[in-house]
């Protein structure tokens, strides 16, 4: 797990602490740059983010007086924190290509088309993704392996790719949240001083409600989306796959190796790296691919010619080099987030959000808003957990609430919302891996909306709210007024 110690409001010298107004200036500028660059001029996100970095750097250097070295250190620390994420992005892109070349993903598509029907595909996809993600403890691993195959199966069954992607993500993040192997689950428990299994148990009821509602919605969505499949379409797809790949049980060796290591508890990066080797070796042993061709596919991607355009498009991949476009956005967003964190702006924004809480309901809502805001500003879900988790701990204590209320809140909103933000590492990874833009799959990623919504309902109704010993059943919070300003606050 990445160690990360954010600057907290109370730890910043009042003479160096930016005001709320100053902290909002880069946020407003970023919104303008992204809107103008992407919407008006149809640019990719890299340079609008670069404009935001340049503006923010000049603003904090000449208006707030921070040194260039301080800004460089902030950028370096943020990129260092996100480096494992960047490496996983590259490895997953190589893994997908080797698994296509090995026949693993084509094999999953071949048998999936035979076993699944359009009516049950979406809810079953969500459920299977949840089971796999819980077992391996990683939503990213699930999406980058089975998720890619599900996209292909769904296309063959006539299900739009954004719907399939939404179901994959709902299941993947559900399992991730509840898995003791998940890094974000462990992180949320650690930064809030909560026992890991108390944290997991505290999330269970809300997660089941949100996921259950999601599955019900996918049932209805599947019934409405499952039109009549053209006669012979599935057979034609299977024939195209079988004509280009040897479809045998041996093609699933990379899945067995990768998921076996993950379930055993090996961290994501070495597990996925081993999956790349397993895919390359399977490609050579089963498909007869040459050594050079196998590793060239891992580096540069695949461009199969199966004789069917639909299949060619589904099995085309970019390899290691194809991850560069996504990674450049991630690095730019992390750089901007690093400046905001280093200058204390994130701490100021989180602190002032915390001051809006006047009771359990508003404190729960503020926590959810803080986590989503950090995901948007810092572009990294670790920060969306760490900053609110550490900033709001005292407020939960003042309300007489057990820490598991806070750990549940930051994960129910922070972990799940990352994939809804196009420039966040979560949104970038999912969009790039599944081949569906964030804005396209967002309306169908039901769990991403329902998880924070159920959390807010918990705060409003008091359901599953746990008080400290001797304070259970309190209906009046210990602190009804707003949180007093810290000494030296603007």
UniProtKB/TrEMBL annotation:
Residues 471-490 are annotated as: Disordered. Pfam families: Na_H_antiporter. The chain crosses the membrane at residues 20-41, 48-66, 78-100, 120-140, 146-169, 208-229, 241-264, 276-298, 318-340, 360-379, 444-463. Keywords: Antiport, Cell membrane, Membrane, Transmembrane, Transmembrane helix, Transport. It is found in: Cell membrane. InterPro entries: Na/H_antiport_NhaC, Na/H_Antiport_NhaC-like_C, NhaC_Na-H+_Antiporter. It is a multi-pass membrane protein. Residues 171-463 form the Na+/H+ antiporter NhaC-like C-terminal domain. Its main location: membrane. GO terms for cellular component: plasma membrane. One of its GO terms (molecular function) is antiporter activity. Belongs to the NhaC Na(+)/H(+) (TC 2.A.35) antiporter family. This is Na+/H+ antiporter. It comes from Halococcus morrhuae DSM 1307.
């Amino acid at each position: 797990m990445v160690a990360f110690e954010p600057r907290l409001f109370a730890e910043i010298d009042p003479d160096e602490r930016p005001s709320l107004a100053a902290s909002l200036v880069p946020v407003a500028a970023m919104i303008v740059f992204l809107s103008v660059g992407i919407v008006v001029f149809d640019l990719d996100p890299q340079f609008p983010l670069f404009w935001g970095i340049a503006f923010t750097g000049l603003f904090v250097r000449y208006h707030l007086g921070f040194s260039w070295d301080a800004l460089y250190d902030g950028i370096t620390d943020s990129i260092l924190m996100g480096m494992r994420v960047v490496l996983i992005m590259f490895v997953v892109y190589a893994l997908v290509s080797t698994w296509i070349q090995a026949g693993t993903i084509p094999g999953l598509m071949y048998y999936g088309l035979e076993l699944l029907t359009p009516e049950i595909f979406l809810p079953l996809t969500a459920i299977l993704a949840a089971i796999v993600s819980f077992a391996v403890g990683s939503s990213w691993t699930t999406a980058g392996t089975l998720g890619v195959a599900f996209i292909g199966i769904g296309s063959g069954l006539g299900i739009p790719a954004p719907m399939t992607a939404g179901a994959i993500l709902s299941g993947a993040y559900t399992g991730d949240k509840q898995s003791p192997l998940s890094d974000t689950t462990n992180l949320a428990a650690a930064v809030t001083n909560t026992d890991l299994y108390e944290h997991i148990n505290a999330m269970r009821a809300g997660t089941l409600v949100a996921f259950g509602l999601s599955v019900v919605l996918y049932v209805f969505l599947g019934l409405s989306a499952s039109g009549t499949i053209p006669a012979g379409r599935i057979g034609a797809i299977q024939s195209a796959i079988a004509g280009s790949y040897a479809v045998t049980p041996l093609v699933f060796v990379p899945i067995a190796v990768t998921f076996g290591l993950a379930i055993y508890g090996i961290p994501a990066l070495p597990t996925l790296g081993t999956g790349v080797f397993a895919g390359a070796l399977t490609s050579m042993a089963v498909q007869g691919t040459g050594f050079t061709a196998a590793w060239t596919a891992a580096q540069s991607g695949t461009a199969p010619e199966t004789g069917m355009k639909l299949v060619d498009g589904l099995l085309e991949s970019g390899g290691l080099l194809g991850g560069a476009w996504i990674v450049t956005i991630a690095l730019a967003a992390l750089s901007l987030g690093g400046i905001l964190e280093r200058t204390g702006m994130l701490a100021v924004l989180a602190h002032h959000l915390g001051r809006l809480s006047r009771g359990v309901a508003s404190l729960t809502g503020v926590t959810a808003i803080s986590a989503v805001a950090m995901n948007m500003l810092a572009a990294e879900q670790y920060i969306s957990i760490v900053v609110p988790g550490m900033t709001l701990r005292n407020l939960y204590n003042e309300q007489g609430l057990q820490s598991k209320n806070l750990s549940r809140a930051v994960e129910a909103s922070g972990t799940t919302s990352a994939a809804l933000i196009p420039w966040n590492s979560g949104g970038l990874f999912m969009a790039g891996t599944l081949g569906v833009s964030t804005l396209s799959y967002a309306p169908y990623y039901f769990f991403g909306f329902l998880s924070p919504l159920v959390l807010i309902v918990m705060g409003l109704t008091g359901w599953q709210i746990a008080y400290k010993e001797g304070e259970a059943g309190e209906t009046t919070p210990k602190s009804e007024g707003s949180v007093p300003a810290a000494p030296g606050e603007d």
